[in-house]
Amino acid sequence: MDVRSDVRMDMRSDVRSDGGPVTRTELVTGDLDEAHGYLCRTYVGHRPRFSGDRAAFRFRAATADEGRFSLGRMTHTLGTRLVTEPRDFLVVVCVLDGAYAVEAGRDEARAVRGGFVALPPGGPAHARWPAAELGVVGITRSALARAALEVLGAPVTPLLAGPLSGERVRRWRGAVRFVSHELLDEASGAAGPLLRAEAVRLLSAVYLTTFPVLVGDRPGPNGTLPAAVRRARAFVDEHAHRDIGLTEIAEAARTSPRALQDGFRRVLGTTPTAYLREVRLDGAHLALRAADPTSGDTVAAIARSWGFAHLGRFAAAYRDRFGRTPRETLRE
């Protein structure tokens, strides 16, 4: 059967930008709302749908959160599809058993047992898994940015990637194991601020040399982006579901609207407002895929929630982008 939960919470708001003593949480439950309330508080707000025997559901999770990074593990026995709220942290998912897939914008990554998926910070994502056991590592955007300047001497833009496995992630596994066993293991005692800072640098540095990122501050043949354009895209990715326009985007990019428009046209061949429209279409697409028309979800309501007031124009733009109508996606 397909069951939809009403659990919906804002993404975690208590992230400590300078870190702090490690907070450990655990939960074992057979209650879906309790399980996804825990996931919302620990990671990011989301609205899930489930398939399988709800009466037989079992959930087990444990997380150690330092503020700048977190390590967690969970077992979830139902097939799950969910759309997340925007995130200000990157996530690396290790599939310990089962499978995991995620879509962000136009890109998709998936992995099976033994594989990894890296999900960058940014706008809504559509994740799904059958019954699965997952290891999850989170690193805040600000922590990775500081490490990028130390390790690479330049800002970076993390990319969606997966499946990654084998030798490519051997060092990542080693770094996570070291941090987990040497610094977060309760038997080793409470790690002090210097050890915690070293753990942040280690995880971030190994991430930067393991998973794909765009590096640099100026446009070039390898696809790097100028700082203002990169800041603008990150702002739009994270806030597209809010009431923003060119003025707000330019303020976040720390430049003028005219300069930002020129930069977008020169580097990306589009404009900031056109990019905002594309991100909103992606968000509406993910929301339609996760929606349930039998529970009252409608194309009009989802379109309005993503800033599309005119349903006809939304439907035409959606069909041009995805090759099907919004109603067809909703009914899939």
Automatic annotation (TrEMBL):
GO molecular function, one term: DNA-binding transcription factor activity
Residue ranges, compositional bias (Basic and acidic residues): 1-17
Keywords in alphabetical order: DNA-binding, Transcription, Transcription regulation
Ranges that cross the membrane: none
Keyword match Transport: no
Residue ranges constituting the HTH araC/xylS-type domain according to the UniProt record: 230-332
Region (Disordered): 1-23
Domain of life: Bacteria
Cited SUPFAM superfamilies: Homeodomain-like
PANTHER family reported in the protein's UniProt record: HTH-TYPE DNA-BINDING TRANSCRIPTIONAL ACTIVATOR EUTR, HTH-TYPE TRANSCRIPTIONAL ACTIVATOR RHAS-RELATED
Protein name as catalogued: AraC family transcriptional regulator
Source organism per UniProt: Actinomadura harenae
